[in-house]
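Lab notebook, bench 4. We co-purified these components, and the gel suggests they stay together. Before we commit to crystallization screens, I want a quick structural picture of the whole thing.
Request: model the full complex, all chains together.
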Amino acid sequence: MLGDTIVAQASAAGASARAVLRLSGPAAIAAAQLVFAAPLPRVRAQVDGPLRFGDGVLRVLALVMVAPASFTGEDTVELHLPGSPMLVRRLLDTLLAEGRSLGVREALPGEFTARACRNGRLSLAEAEGVLLLLHAADTRAAGHAAQWLRGGYAQAASDLRGRLQDVLALVETGLDFDDGEAGAVAVADWLVPLAAAAEQLRLLRASLPSAAPGGEVLLLGRANAGKSSLVNALLGRDEALVDGTPGTTRDLLRAELAPGVALWDAPGDLDEPTVADAAALALRERLAGRAAALLCVLDATAPQVPPAVLQSPLPWLAIVWTKCDLVAEPPLPSALAERAGDAVPVFRTSAARRRGLEPLRDLLLRSGAAGVVDAGGPLRSALSAAVLAIERARVAAPLGAELVALELQAALAALDGIGGSHSPEHLLDRIYGRFCLGK
Amino acid sequence: MRVVQRDFDVLVVGGGHAGVEAASAAARLGCRTAMVVLDPAAIGRMSCNPAIGGLAKGQLVREIDALGGEMALVTDATGIQFRMLNTSKGPAVRSPRAQCDRDAYNRTMAARVLGLPNLTVITGEAVALRAAVGGARVDGVELACGSHLGAPAVVLTTGTFLGGRLFAGSWEAPGGRHGESAATRISDSLRSFGIRLGRHKTGTPPRLHRASIDFSRCERQPGDDPPQPFSFRTRRIDRPQMCCWLTRTNPATHAVIRRHAHLSPMVQGRIRGTGPRYCPSVEDKVVRFAAQESHPVFLEPEGRDSIEIYPNGVSTSLPSEVQEQFLRTIPGLEEVQVLRHGYAVEYDHIVTDQIRGDLQVAALRGLFAAGQINGTSGYEEAAGQGLVAGLNAARFARGQDPVVFDRATAYLGVMVDDLCRVNPSEPYRMFTSRAEFRLLLRSDNADRRLTPLGERLGLVDAAAADAVRDKERRLLAARRWLDTTRRGGKSLLEWLRRPEVTTADLLAWDATFAAMSLTAGELAELEAEVKYAGYVERQAMEVDRLRRMEQRRIPTAFDYGAVTGLSNEARAQLLQRRPLTLGEASRLAGVRQADVQLLLVKLGC
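Here is the predicted assembly.
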């Protein structure tokens, strides 16, 4: 685990004058070179140069530190750039995508610290201090993960379980019934659906949001639900361009409410999005993975819930009614109430009258204090355990179907925490549903 | 009322596969045992298929044998065709199966039982259970003739006779088996103690006249050469084997069945009991899997000299004239003569959430149950429970602690635990997939798993226990030899690890190994240990974890309400069932891994 190269933002989350991206590991310098136009030396150095990125005019500072003289004790490159979260995120994405062949991956929470400790650069006590803070964030993440399961995610996980159970049913039919009873079940019959299930599992894992600072909150709602007005009202200044025409916000806007607390004003869902709108929405999808939570914004005069809200894997911070000065607030749409459960607070606001904003602002400030939130963490480890078990199942295929079954059981057990459960009775139901068995 | 004062330690009601093993186990343990049967000549009779064993069932028979039981020995003595199933698959899922001579099996078993020391066979019909005054504790049974047999422990093994009812077409009548009457009054007696009963259904195919079948139109299905015995105590089987035959149904068969399906008592709703999905009637197969154009029919001889053929695959309760009509569309059966028609039978069973891990019925102390009365099907499942119930009835009678097999030790443990945990919605059949530790629970190592325990309990004799110790030594020596003998730069043991290499290759390569003359079972065991290396260790670790969890007791007054985060389904189940241990809790339907983790935390583990 410690042999690969990791990257993450090393400066405080949120907007500030400067932001720092840190790469650490054997391929740190080579990876930095992928985005940095000037040559980087293999000695401790400070290099000023343009980014090989976007239109290429942005000049940044690269600090090169060679092992063991760095925070982590490994080769390290820090890229110091203007403090635009958008820029940091795009650069991070580029590094992760292009650096994959070099073994670059995103650092886990606390991983720089763990490496520093492992390489003797930090005492255990010092490292523990840092990790304790991160652990507090994990506890919160576990709560968020539970919240998510009420959403579309539980369905996706249960579909996946179903597919794996189907594969297991095929394997077991071949083992538990002789050819006379079931007809022969060939290895080829289950290898193909097994490969498909493995792929689906990987996609599901990739769709999990990565760890994000607790104060990064995404606003989601229908176009013209009043998201931008809400942002302006909360900020007390006009940052977002506001207009009564649906679809005014066609780009993502990040507005900082306080240090460490930021609202992402995202384009709303239109009935008929144009190509450009679709691109902006795709960007929103990608960036949604970088936020820690979402605010669901509902127009009291037209309470419609776009599917994006219901399908988002992000934990919900709150539901916010807008335009409450115009009409009495209607009941929550049932799909929404079901998804949110009782734990999500509901706020009634009017941007025009500046009403109901303070309790919401308080909640946002509190969420900012939570540090890093890794809502996907518990699920990611469950899915990863399942992926590993399926890999072992495929390796075991030539050795014997009974071993494949053992690994599939392990994969299903790993998914057990994500809704549903597995038992021999379920298995038999699946077997009988497909085969005419018995003499 | 006439009272016959006869003192027994254990009373076994019924003489089928469960009753035989229950009585034999109690008698082997030295208990004064009585077996109450309607007809002593019917002891050990095979009601349906004249075969023993099969996938997962073969493992059960080997386990019964490892604990000194009867089934495997009598199968070896009366088998007419032996096969090891699943030989193309791994050793954990291979199982022995044998066709037996039905009459010889019945005769041999009855003779063995009648000759058992400590056992008295009593002819009569048990009509009621007797409870001790003032206590929910059994003290004997009452017979139809009015006499009372006293015993502190009673094992009920009533099979399909408990409230049995037979059906074929529009005909229906009370009965336990073709030509034998049912036991109707004992159901009322069970109910009077507050024991809840359910209803199951099973069926049997018509029996065919051997001389009326044209076997040249069927496919030969020979047995293994040489045959592998069932029992660890049988050295070898020298009798010549018989052949079975395979033919198939076709669209013409299905058309006849479909045209008359409305005459089936199942379709008409006259049978309320649930039938087994793994053993559907032919009308069920045709209706439910309409797209399938053909189903196999195995023609199995009922015995060496028997004129009967058992057509495995066409169990039916259609009217008798329809049975003949559809059979005659099948290749080889164009001129077939039906000797006895197929029928369905519906019977009572105890709802199994009232059964405990020692097969005692919770409502009435000292009452044990085994076989179809516990909602299972199959001779082997019945016999296995018979052994467990007989063993525990004997221990109960003597004031000893119950013996509960766990899921990591034996299929016997898997079966009993399954029965206690879920109320099967259909007659319960054993499958290898029910055993999470099936790599460890193989038919080849049942003796090593269980015989030492059997010796401690007093179920097996010294000779059987010595044989296992001898086998351990031989296997160890063989392993050492394979580990130290090299071929092409690798040890023979390393060769055996490769998927394509089998013990047969090693026997051909190495004369010393061949000269050790290991039995087929021993070779299978050696192969399993080598091929499953790594996996077996992993399962052993899980077994360890399971046993630790199994033993973690949950206080009876445990407050599930105080455990936040439990799923509602889990909480409801836990409150209703009140499991004694964390292991039991973890296997309840609706209780998830996450719930178990929460309980672990709360219990302070």
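Residues 124-148 of chain A form the longest helix (25 residues). Worth comparing against the SEC data before the next meeting. DSSP finds 15 helices and 14 strands in chain A.
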